[in-house]
């Protein structure tokens, strides 16, 4: 495990270096998860790329800092981490809010970004009423009160079996997430809108949707792809909102196929 202070916030990260000539792939996790969600597919990628994973503020082993947050806070943390590690021209793979952070990083620091993989995300996710209701539920009754509803969006029905140990583990990940870090990032998502910024993205982009995603359904991901000039769009049929857990081989294959096309 590796740690560094960025913008006064302790950030937990892991950098797995490959040959210097290999592309650098940076993973940004979703709301209520940490960098462990990528571990299912990392063995399929680390032989080919230098890979950076990290826990955004308020998640995993990183500091809680001072919630609520903005997407700009998360973007500044990622930019600071990349600068600290001397990395640029990276390929950012962001899942859900991680995709918003990826779009924000390109808007703020295009020098850092070679390409974007925007998985199960959009230019704008949800509306203020939906996010305010979720924040209120978490603040009043804890994350456990929304567990079942969130899991129905995250995973397909076959995965959500009580006897599936992986499903139980990801339930644990969510409910053990600091509530203020969760609701603080909900506020960041609520206030983020990259509709106009998406139209200005001038690097290669792959947008990935899960056919059964209840959080960012395929039509929403497609609307993002339609905004970005030249963006590719792919659907994973047997996946919901977190395909790197539920369909890691298929998700990794899309990533590798996209990167192989880059110069």
From TrEMBL:
<keyword id="KW-0378">Hydrolase</keyword>
<dbReference type="Pfam" id="PF00561">
    <property type="entry name" value="Abhydrolase_1"/>
</dbReference>
<dbReference type="InterPro" id="IPR026968">
    <property type="entry name" value="PcaD/CatD"/>
</dbReference>
<dbReference type="InterPro" id="IPR029058">
    <property type="entry name" value="AB_hydrolase_fold"/>
</dbReference>
<feature type="domain" description="AB hydrolase-1">
    <location>
        <begin position="23"/>
        <end position="248"/>
    </location>
</feature>
<dbReference type="GO" id="GO:0047570">
    <property type="term" value="F:3-oxoadipate enol-lactonase activity"/>
</dbReference>
<protein>
    <submittedName>
        <fullName>3-oxoadipate enol-lactonase</fullName>
        <ecNumber>3.1.1.24</ecNumber>
    </submittedName>
</protein>
<dbReference type="InterPro" id="IPR000073">
    <property type="entry name" value="AB_hydrolase_1"/>
</dbReference>
<dbReference type="InterPro" id="IPR050266">
    <property type="entry name" value="AB_hydrolase_sf"/>
</dbReference>
């Amino acid at each position: 495990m590796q740690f560094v202070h960025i913008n006064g916030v302790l950030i937990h990260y892991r950098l797995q270096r490959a040959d210097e000539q290999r592309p650098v792939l940076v993973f940004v996790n979703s709301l209520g998860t940490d960098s462990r969600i990528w571990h299912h597919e990392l063995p399929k990628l680390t032989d080919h790329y230098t890979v950076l994973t990290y826990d955004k503020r308020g998640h995993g082993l990183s500091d809680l800092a001072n919630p609520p947050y903005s997407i700009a806070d998360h973007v500044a943390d990622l930019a600071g981490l990349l600068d600290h590690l001397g990395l640029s021209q990276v390929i950012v793979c962001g899942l859900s809010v991680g995709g918003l952070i990826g779009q924000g990083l390109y808007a703020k620091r295009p020098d850092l970004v070679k390409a974007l993989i925007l998985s199960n995300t959009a230019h704008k996710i949800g509306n203020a009423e939906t996010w305010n209701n979720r924040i209120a539920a978490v603040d009043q009754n804890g994350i456990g009160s929304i567990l079942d509803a969130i899991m129905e969006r995250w995973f397909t029905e076959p995965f959500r079996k009580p006897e599936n140990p992986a499903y139980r583990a990801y339930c644990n990940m969510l409910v053990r997430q600091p509530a203020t870090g969760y609701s603080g990032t909900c506020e960041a998502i609520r206030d983020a809108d990259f509709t106009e910024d998406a139209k200005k993205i001038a690097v290669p982009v792959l947008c990935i949707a899960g056919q059964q995603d209840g959080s960012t359904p395929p039509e929403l991901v497609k609307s993002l792809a339609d905004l970005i000039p030249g963006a590719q769009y792919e659907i994973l049929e047997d996946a919901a909102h977190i395909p790197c857990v539920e369909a890691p081989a298929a998700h990794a294959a899309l990533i590798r196929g996209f990167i192989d096309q880059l110069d």
